What does this fold into?
Amino acid sequence: MLQGVSIKHLNQHLGEEVMLQGWLYNKRSSGKIQFLILRDGSGLVQGVMVKKEVDQETWAKANSLTQESSLRVWGIVREEPRAVGGYELQVTRLEIISLAAEYPITHKEHGVDFLADRRHLWIRTPRQSAILRIRSEIEHALREFFYQREFVLADAPIITPAACEGTTTLFEIDYHGNPAFLSQSGQLYSEATALALGKVYCFGPTFRAEKSKTRRHLMEFWMLEAEMAFYDLDDNMRLQEEMIMFVIDRVLHRCREDLKTLGRDTDRLASISVPFPRLSYTEAVELLRQKGVAFEWGDDFGAPEETLISENFNAPVFVHRYPTALKAFYMKPDPNQPEVVLGADLLAPEGYGEIIGGGQRIDDLTLLEQRLDEHGLPREAFEWYLDLRRYGSVPHAGFGLGIERTVAWICGLDHVREAIPFPRMLYRMYP
Ligand code: 4AD
Ligand code: MG
It folds into this structure.
């Protein structure tokens, strides 16, 4: 058996001799003692090797270790409040698995382009590893939330014949001589699975050929999309706030060390409670005007407006009932106010902007056909979708949560590029 114990679980082995495998993150030496900082993907621990307590060969091996060499060490676990993670390993034996060549990412500061070119290595640093562990926790929490509520996970296709979120951001591919597109959203398929299964979600990569070079836009991002038969706009918002609370609670309880590594102000997250504030688009425009922004009713909010709106609140805020012209073809008009739709975006606090887009869908066949025409969308490609209104149409609603923006907010990151293992951006798809 090749497995040893993981650094994360050292606290269960106080006083015992254990074997650890990992990589050398850093080292210091006083001549008589070598301090080896090891990482294994679950955390960092300091290994202490005392010259007079080990044989010459072991000492020499430790001496020869370069940054990011892979190794196996044996030692006794001790409590050490001053060391990283609170424990240290009194090293008795050491085996080098592979001595690393000179490592490009040193413990000095590096520019972000330099790091982005080496993303495959950059993810080994404590901060990046912490983010990826939190992302994993968030994804797991989301799946569990929906599992507990008896949603069916119904995966949507990636290769699609038509647009869901407007034709300007489509990535076109060649599908055996015919044009096809990478999915912008699984929603239309989730509407079909919701009419088959009631409450569903899909979770996968989605693609947008965005010409935006901002801290919030990726070309490939992951989206969790839920769709529920017999849900209206209010039901939809209630489900979303419960979901966000579930995720925050999970991360606060299970990722304490990682949040500390990131220096995240967790009070900001812990103070969030339901219900989240709800503002209509029209009220949000009023709020902007009160803040001295000259804003026209009918214009879309950009990042600065979203920040101004959300900074009034501690919790994420729903903005609902946007002007019809701003939103996708499938959004149901408000019967009391037909110039707006029953859609809502959820804006995260601290200037992170929109993390969820969603709403109630048009359930009437004639209106949906009319909207397809108005949006210049080809009827043939949507015949199957129109069938959903022909055969037992029901009121239904759903939403899509952008994972990277959610990770960026919960981790307190400056840019979504750090919220995904390998970001795809306007001018970067390497490595
Ligand atoms: O608001 P969007 O475009 O909504 C939809 O795609 C709906 N069809 C979802 C649904 O109702 N099932 O996108 C949803 C979320 C946004 O709120 C944002 O968090 C994220 O997806 N998102 C992006 N994240 C990173 N980079 C991009 N280019 C993104 N575009 C959208
Ligand atoms: Mg949106």
